[in-house]
Amino acid sequence: MSHKAWMKTVPTENCDVLMTFPDTTDDHTLLWLLNHIRLGIPELIVQVRHHKHTRVYAFFVTATYESLLRGADEIGLRKPVKAEFGGGMRSFSCEEDYIYENIENELYFFTSQERQNIIRYWLENLRAKQGEALHNIHFLEGQPIIPELAARGVIQQVFPLHEQRILKRLMKSWVQAVCEAQPLDDICDYFGVKIAMYFAWLGFYTSAMVYPAVFGSILYTFTESDQTSQDISCVVFAIFNVIWATLFLEEWKRRGAEFAYKWGTLDTPSESIEEPRPQFRGIKRISPVTSAEEFYYPPWKRLLFQCLVSLPVCLACLTLVFLLMLGCFQLQ
Fold it and tell me: Which residues form the Anoctamin transmembrane domain (predicted)?
């Protein structure tokens, strides 16, 4: 297909994830990847666009509401349940979709980051078949295609798109606000639980630091200039810090558990049974623990790499540092 034909394509009106390519990308690469995405992930809607000034190709990726519901079921996305069905949070199930809040509203059931997480999950788990290759790139059986192409520079970047309307609202209520509580629920809805939990901890930590700051200032003001008074003040401040640190940790455990329960991550599955990262390579086998198919990397290979590569490199670096230290002493 010619470049002019690509330029005539129209992007989707509602784009969730954007995938861009270098300006040197040929049509064969684009067609190969586009065909694999459409065959391997039929739930996705992909439109191709070519920017005539930068000569950069881009895939505009989105999905229908029905496909997103199936994706939410596949990844076990936790959603709030209606009060008449018990309330709380539960992993989404298409078979019981009627029990979830706002399920009838396509615009508000999924947040933007939930839509993007589902789409990126599909993209990053597009696996290669045995013997597949693109130019000089030969894929292993079951290897994720898109992370490998991104690592090789075939794909320039894959990123979710921002919603300017929500960003402007967060700018006013969060960034530009002075002496106001953080809109943690809005942050969670837009950026996800991890980002919201970080800023919740940061706000709690900043507020908790007021107590040792005030107590230390008062102690410093009323401490005499003699050595005995200063020593006593140091001991008192150290005892205060020990008590403060203990109360701080215990209070954050309670506050963090409240946020985790509120945002539906308190009883999420352990990382040991989650999907491994897309870049992980290994052989397929049946897990002796879960009886599910998984990628397995033998421990002896990891130990061999550590002994033949990691350990010699570390020893060489330590030797170099030691020799440089001796050289500095000699120069002095």
Answer: 187-331
Ranges of beta strands (E only) in the chain are: 17-20, 44-51, 56-63, 78-80, 89-91, 133-134, 137-138, 157-160, 283-286, 293-296
- Taking alpha carbons only, the member of 123, 116, 266, 134 closest to residue 197 is 266
Residues 240 and 196 in one domain: yes
What's the one-letter identity of residue 110?
Answer: F
Structural domain that includes position 226: 181-263
- Checking if the pLDDT of 80 tops 50, the result is yes
Helix axis angle, 193-208 to 184-191, nearest 10°: 150
Tokens of 196: 């919201």
Confidence at residue 276, expressed as pLDDT on a 0 to 100 scale: 63
Q: What is the largest CA-CA distance in the chain?
A: 86
pLDDT of 273 strictly over 60: no
pTM across the whole model: 0.69
Assigned domain for 10 exists: no
